[in-house]
Amino acid sequence: MSAPMKKCHVSATVNGEPREFLCEPTQVLSDILRNDLDLTGTKEGCTTGDCGACSVMLDGALVCSCLVLAAEVEGSEIETVEGVAKDGVLHPVQEKLLEHAALQCGICTPGIVVAAKALLEQNPDPSEEETRYWLAGNLCRCTGYDKIIRAVMDAGAAMRGE
Amino acid sequence: MTSDMKVKTQFRHVGTRPVRPDGLDKVTGRAQYGADRNLQGQVYGHIVRSPHAHARIKSIDFSAAEKLPGVVATMSAADLPEPGDRLIPGAEVEMKLKNVSPVIMARDKVLYHSQAVAAVAATSPRIAAEAAALVKVEYEVLPHVLDMHAALADDAPLLHEDNFTVGMDPPPEKPSNVSVYVAMAKGDVEQGFAEADIVLERTVTLPMCHQAYIEPHACVAKVDENGKVDIWCTTQGQFMVRVLTAEVTGIPQKDIKVTPSEIGGGFGGKTTVYIEPVAAVLAKKAGRPVKIVMSREEVFRASGPVSDSETRVKIGVKKDGTITAIDSDMLMNTGAYSASAMFAGVLFGTAPYKCENIRSIGREVLTNKPRVWAYRAPGAPQALTAVECVVNELAAELGMDPIDLRLQNAVEEGDIPLYGVPFQPVGLKECLEKVKEHPNYQVPLGPNQGRGVACAFWINAGMQSSASIHVAPDGGISVQTGNPDIGGSRASMALMAAEVLGVPVETVRPAVMDTDSIGYCDGTGGSRTTLATGGAVIQAAEKLVEELRRRAAASWQVDIEDVAWLDGKAVERCGIGIDELIEGSSPIKDGAKVLTLAELAATAGNTGGPLTAVASLHAHNAAPAFAVNACDVEVDPETGRTTVLRYTCAQDVGKAIHPAYVEGQLQGGAVQGIGWALNEEYLWDENGVLDNAGLLDYRIPVASDLPMIDTIIVEEPNIMHPFGVRGVGEAPICPPVPAVTTAVNNAAGILLYDLPLSPPKVLAAIDERD
Asked: Confidence band (pLDDT; 50, 70, 90) for A2?
C-alpha cells in the first residue's frame, strides 16, 4: 500500500483569472481542470496524448493537458476552450465550425477550437495541407474532417477580413 | 402504413441549414458529456479485470482491498441475479440475459482478457485503482482460442459447454463454438452458375476493429434510501440503459431513472451497457453516488468491438453483364457471447442486385475475444465487401465500367431481395449515375494510381418513439424526445416541428429528456431517429396545429373546418379551400380573422388551458438506403502506403432534413470505412491479450490522411413517410471498404483481400507480384 501523497499547492492564471489548486504529484492538468476547476470543456478521450480532445494553451504553446503534470504549471498562463469566446462573442473558429456544421457529436470540438485558434494565430492563411497536418493530432471519429478543415480555413479568411 | 399517404415535397424549413440548437454549448465547452458531471458525496468505481483469455474463477477475496482506507464498497457477480435462460423483455433485439450479464460481471468463468470480474468503490480514483489491484482472484487457466477456424476444429476448447448451434436442422447433438447458423436462398444457384459465362470466387477477410468513439463510457449513479436509482450516463438510449440495468441488477425498471448526457460518439457501440449496472450496485452498497469512467484502454479491451469475418463469395455473370448467381458463405466472429450481426450480413449482402439465384449462408463463431457489438450497419460491410470486390473483378474481366455493370443489375421498384420485401421506389440507379457523372470519376489516373467503386444497401430501422410539444405563453415551442443527439438530431427535430407549425426554426427549442420525462423511445441507432422520432415530432406538431385551429374556431365561434393554419397563424378560410390557401393560389380574403401562435398561446388559459401535444408511434415505415462510393488512391510501391486522392459518395436519403448533417454522415461513414480498409485492426498476442489497446497503435484516420470527401445527396422519397425520410447514418460505412480495397488492388496490380490493406501487407503483395 502506498503512503498517502502530500499534495502540491499550485497557482496559475487560467483564462485570465488567478486560480489556485492542490494536486497530487501524479495528477495531470486535464484532471485538475476538469475535476477541481470545473472546466469540463477540456475533454479526456485517451489520457495518453493521442486524441487531442484535451488541447489547451500553456504559456502560448498548444499542449495535450493530459500529458502535463498539474504540479508543473505553477506561475503559468493557461487558456482552455472556456476562455476562447471573449465578452460573449464567439471566436471566428467557433462561428465557422457552427456555420459549416463541422461537428456531429462534439466531443472533439473543444480541442479542435483550441488547436485551430492556435494555428491561425501562428499562420493566418494556412493551406489545406497545413491545416490538415496541424490538426492531425485532434482525432474526430464523426465528420471525416472535411467540414472541420473548411471551417478552419474559412475562419482564417474571416480573420483576414476576406 | 397506408400507400396513399401524401408525401410532402414542398418545404419551407426542411432542407435548410440552420445552426444546430445545441451548437453554442458544444463550441464553448459548456455541453456536458458522460464524464462531466460530479455529484455531492460521490465516490469512484474501478473494475477488476481478468488477466486471462479463458479461465475458471475459483475464488474472489476482497479482504485486502476492503482494508484500504477510503474503500467503501466492493462487488462481484455474486451481487447480481443468476441470468438463467431469461430473455430480456422490451429490449430492442431479442437478447438472452446470460449473454449480457457476464459482460458486466463474469460469473464462474472468464471468456476473454479484461472481462470484468469484480469492482470496488473508493473515495478517490487513485485509491479505487489501488484497491482493485488488491482484490485477489484465483483462476484455473483454461486453453483459449482466438481464431475462428481454430474454434471450429473438433478438438477446440469449448467456450460454452451448453452451446448447441441454433438454426441447424436437425439440431446438433454435440456442443460447439458455432452459436448460430443461417441459410437463406432464392432461385437455383447451380442453374444460375450453369448459365454464366464467367464465374469468379474470392474469399475476403475483414479484421476485428472498434467503433473508436472519442468519448469513453462514463456514468454516475446514485441510490436513495427508498432504493430509487438515478443514473447519468453517455448512451445511445436511456431506455435501453434502464431495461438492461434492471435486468442485470434485479432492480425493477420503475425504480430506475436514466438521464442521458451529451454523447461523444457511439456508432452502435453505446447501444448497450458496461458500467451502469456496476455503478448502481456499488452506489446502493456504498450509500453514496458512484462515478465510473472507463479508460481508453478499457474501452478497447472490454467494450464490444466489431466482428472479424471471412466471406467466400462466388458470382456468375453472362458476357452481356447479367449477374446469374451469387453464392455467399460467411464466418463471423462474435467473441465470447452470441451477439454478432451475422444475420444482417447474410440477408443484406446481395441486396443491391436483381439476381434471381442467390444462396447466402452464415455461421457465427465463439472465440475468446471480447463480446462484439454493433458498429454502423452491423454485419453489412463484412458481407458486402466480398460481393463488391468480386463484382469489380468481373467488370474488369468483362471490359465493362464497374458502374455500368452495376447499372445493368441494380435493383429498382418491385424487385424482391433475399429478405423478401419488395422494394418501393429506390434511388440506387440515380446514385450510380450521379457518381459516374461526377468530375472525380473523369480524372485520368497516373502511375501507381487506382480507382474503386462499390455500392451498398442498408435496411434502416423504424421502432418506437415518443415526442411531446409544449407552447410557452409567448409562442415559444419546446420539442421533447427521448433520443440522445449523436449527430445533430436536435436540429432535425426543430426543422420538422417548424415545418408543420409554420414558425421560424429559431423559436423551437428541442430537448432530449430523461426516462421519467418522456414516453418510451428505442435508442438512437438503426438510422431510425430522424425517421421515427421525427415522425413522432411531426405527429405531435400536427395534433398541436389541430388544437390551435380548434381554439381559434372557438374564439371566432366558427367550425374548426373554417380555420386554416398558415405560416404560424390561424386564418379564417371564408370559403376558400385549405389547399388553395396553403399553396397560395388563392389569397386570404380581406377582413378574414387571424390569430397568431403567440396570440393563441397568450390567451390559452382562457380557451382550454396550456397548449401541449403528445405523440407516440411504432414506426413500420422505414425504407432502405442505397449508397455508392468511388475512390481513387495512389500506392507507394516503395513502402506499400496508400494515399486516398479523391473520394465521392452518393446516397439515397429520401429527404435530407438538414443537408449539412446528412453530408456529415456520408463523409464520416466514408472515412470510418477507409480506416477499416487500410489501417484499423485488433492485434493479439498468443495469450489473447490485445496488443494495440490505445489510439496511437489502433490508428483511426487523422486529418492529414485524407482528401475532402465529396458528397451527392439523392432524394428518392420514402413513400411511407410524411416527409419522405429514409434512414441515413449507417449505410455510409458499407461501400468504402470494398471501394478502397479495389482501388488499392488496381493501383498496385495486386489481388489482396486480407484486410486491412496496411503497408506491410501491400508491400509483401507487390513483392510477390514482381
From this structure: low
Q: Which residues contact B579 (CB under 8 A, 6 or more apart)?
A: none
B691-716: pLDDT as tens digits? 999 999 999 999 999 999 999 999 99
| B277-296 core/surface letters (b: 16 or more CB in 10 A; e: else) | bbbbbbbbbbebbbbbbbbb
Note whether B24 contacts A45, CB cutoff 8 Å. Answer: no
B24-82 per-position pLDDT tens digit = 999 999 999 999 999 999 999 999 999 999 999 999 999 999 999 999 999 999 999 99
| B449 within 8 A of B747, measured Cβ to Cβ | yes
CA angle B302, B304, B308 (to 5 degrees): 115
Distant-in-sequence, close-in-space partners of B469: CB < 8 Å, separation ≥ 6: B477, B478, B479, B480, B497, B537, B540, B541, B544, B612, B613, B614
Strands B290-293, B43-49: parallel, antiparallel or unpaired by DSSP?
parallel
Nearest CA in chain A to B488: A104
Contacting residues for A64 by C-beta, under 8 A, at least 6 apart: A30, A49, A52, A54, A55, A137
Cross-strand bridge partners of residue B431: none
Residues B246, B273: Cα–Cα separation, whole Å: 11
Report the C-alpha gap between A156 and A125 in whole angstroms.
6
Residue B233 DSSP symbol: E
Could you say which of B23, B696, B708 has the minimum Cβ distance to residue A146? B708
Cell numbers given for B471: 407552447
Note the pTM of the prediction, 2 decimals. Answer: 0.98
Contact A48 B216 (CB under 8 A): no
A-interface mutation test, from B25, B39, B214, most A Cβ less than 10 A away:
B214
Helix (H, G, I), strand (E, B) or coil at B240: helix
Answer whether A48 sits within 8 Å of B695, measured CB to CB: yes
Select from A1, A97, A150 the Cβ nearest to the Cβ of B27.
A97
Chain B: closest CA distance from residue A61 (Å): 20
In sign, the C-alpha dihedral spanning B673, B674, B677, B680 is negative
Give the SS3 label for residue B566. strand
Q: Give the orientation angle of helix A146-159 with respect to helix B659-678, to 10 degrees.
A: 120
